[in-house]
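Archive entry: two folds, one per protein. Generate the first.
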Amino acid sequence: MDVQKRAANGGAEQAQKWLFWLDEKKVEGVAPFKELVQAIHDEATDHSFQQELNRVFFLLSVLIALAAGADYLTQPWPQGSAYFCQLPYFLSIVSFKPFAVPMMYCLTQVAHLTFVEVMFGHSEQHREPSGTLSYSPLPRDPVTVTAAFIVALLFSLWFSAMVVGIAIPALLFAPVLSIPSFILPMVVMYVPSAMIDTVNTSI
């Protein structure tokens, strides 16, 4: 019996003990909870099917995102400066819905997969014989891992371009924005107190 089934059976046993205690206390309306516990148990033990279903949707979303992204990038680009015209066009790919919607789904799956690997990847108790972690949304196989790497690589490329895109505006507007966001609040907070202290000292 794998880790997922042991965990599910353990949770079901604890729930059944709790429901048995409610029966002893003559608490009414326990029957619907018994059905709910059984349904949760059945769903937990069938976690591998959910992983395979997620895998199908994930790979399909990756293919759709790649096709939509290729269609977007092969369209005529705006003429003009590379920084002020072409770079914003590249960064605007996130507003192209045929690309953005499947890619957002892929990012949520990759983020979940990465979180599980970081948190439980060192534990052999949570890893199934296939190498897949019990709490992972996706099975661990070469195709899925490669697709997840492609999604992470594309996001890293876009994020790096975004950092380059906002670098110059940030440097230009940071001094101006610091006046209302930092300097003026500090003046309002400390100048009146300093003036009052000066008056009290002179008196």
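Generate the second and append.
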Amino acid sequence: MSLNVSALSTYTDQISGKLAKEILLASNTIKGDIVAIQYGAIGNAVQLNSIKSTILGTTAACSAFATSGSTVIGATTVTLCPVKFEDSVCIDTLNKYYLSFMAQSKFNTEDLGAFEDVFVSNKVEATTKAIDQMVWRSATAAPNYAGSAATTGNLVLCNGFLEAGYLASASTVNVAKTAITVSNAYVIVDDILTSVAANASVLLDEFNLYLSPADFQSYLSSLRSLNLYNYNTQAEATTNILHPGSIGMHIVKTNGMDGVASGTALATKKENIVLVISDESDLNMDIWFEKNADAIHTRTKIRVGTGFVFPELVVVIR
């Protein structure tokens, strides 16, 4: 029994564009619908356009037409980062896994699928996780949000949402962070809500507080200890919950923030925090066999960027 590596090249050549989109769409940031997405960006940067109007009334008397109020058209620039993920695996190593896979397939009543499906799915899953962390935690220089280890590997390829929030600190609402524990989580979130009410009250009707998975778990445990969490043991996993006592503050579990220092967070409306994704021509995933190296190579290329439409409506907890 031998491994036919040509099946992998054929498989990915047919749907390379679809695979690249699947990688992006499978991420918690997009699949979870926790931020706004702008697709089809072309070039190295895009503008997030905005408009603000101030309306001033006057007494209803007969007179010449007089303009009142103001209209301000603005834009925030988002720089797109070209990112490439490359990997190689020796065919001998892969062949050992393939033989084990074939043995399982013969005796397992569950259909394990084609080997090339399993191999590609593994690469998609790993790349998806890397991209998810990159769009939240990465920083092209030493990260300004304290307590992060975003100084190596994938986390230096772009500026993620946390770094973008810090770089816009002249406009954002800035709150000093406190490490979150089960005993203080509810109080800390309440304090953040107070800061939002005082400095960006327009958010109160509906906005998200983005927490790392660890801090989100501490928050849920805090609600349970205070008898504020009514849960159903048969329900699906909780990833988004309305903060008790708030008008519309949603606490959101954010996988891409896994690994940040406890207490690090962002708060804003979903529509205000934007992940920009390039045109399909810049998205692809390829897998091929190189005979000279006796190895299978994988390459995924994407272009993404992060930003905020209205930085003044972003609360950065750092």
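Annotation attached to the second fold: Helices lie at 6-25, 28-31, 91-107, 115-137, 161-167, 185-199, 213-225. The chain has seven helices and 13 strands.
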